[in-house]
Design brief:
The complex is a heterodimer of chains A (149) and B (69).
Chain A (H helix, E strand, L loop, with lengths): L1 H32 L10 H30 L1 H11 L2 H9 L2 H19 L3 H28 L1
Helix pairs in contact in A: 1-2, 2-3, 4-6, 5-6
Chain B lengths: L3 E2 L1 H7 L4 H8 L3 H8 L7 H10 L4 H4 E2 L1 H4 L1
Antiparallel strand pairs in B: 1-2
Helix pairs in contact in B: 2-3
The chains are: A mainly alpha (149), B mainly alpha (69).
């Protein structure tokens, strides 16, 4: 359990850093949108998407920070979190939904889409829609197996 | 392959909630629910942990007659 506690501490630190980075990037994007800082002309849609994406990542990181801090304060909560992470049924559901790989490839596609968006808008839309569709399939499968297993 | 169990009855005898049993055997409440309603078949390790918690053998907690036939 001590090993798991250390893992949660590290995870809390990482999510805290992600939170700070997300806030910083959001402020940067807002400054570009309000034209307070000059930057090379950027597609407005791409910039809005980036801001939304960063905000979303920040929110998820914040949720993890709160959850982890709560678990670190209460040993019972830590045990529940440990059980949840090591639950065999949950692992089976995740495996059946093909989730870890699907989430990773979707993440890579989103990053690639954002980068490609600076050069070609069509590639940006294609990659983002494909990533979203892939995530939707993964999440639907996860939901389906959560109810049937 | 579905395996019948008497976990629900044992829980009631010991006045245990699903959450308390889950916490004791290192799993989640949802997994205990799935095992009780025969949606999910516990692994050998989890079956052992549950049986051991109630001081019973695996065969006394899980009914394997369907598999044998």
């Amino acid at each position: 359990m001590e090993k798991f506690r250390k893992k949660i501490v590290i995870s809390t630190i990482i999510s805290g850093i992600i939170n700070l980075a997300a806030v910083g990037l959001c402020i940067f994007d807002l400054l570009i949108i309000s034209e307070k800082i000059s930057f090379q002309p950027v597609n407005e849609m791409l910039l809005s998407f980036q801001t939304g994406l960063v905000l979303g990542i920040g929110m998820v990181a914040l949720m993890y920070t709160i959850k982890n801090r709560k678990a670190l304060r209460d040993p019972k909560e830590l045990q529940i979190l440990y059980n949840k992470e090591h639950d065999e049924r949950q692992q089976l559901i995740i495996q059946k939904a093909g989730m870890p790989m699907m989430a990773y490839t979707s993440g890579v596609m989103v990053i690639a889409g954002v980068i490609a968006g600076y050069y070609n808008t069509v590639v940006f839309y294609t990659l983002i829609v494909a990533a979203m569709a892939q995530l939707l399939v993964g999440l639907s499968l996860k939901l389906y197996y959560s109810r049937t297993i | 392959m579905k395996v019948k169990t008497c976990i629900k009855e044992l829980r009631k005898q010991h006045k245990l909630s699903q959450e308390e049993l889950a916490l004791a055997v290192g799993t989640t409440r949802q997994t205990i629910t799935s095992i009780e309603v025969e949606k999910y078949t516990a692994s050998l390790v989890l079956a052992y942990k549950i049986a051991h918690y109630f001081n019973l053998s695996i065969e006394e907690v899980f009914d394997f007659t369907d598999i044998e036939s």
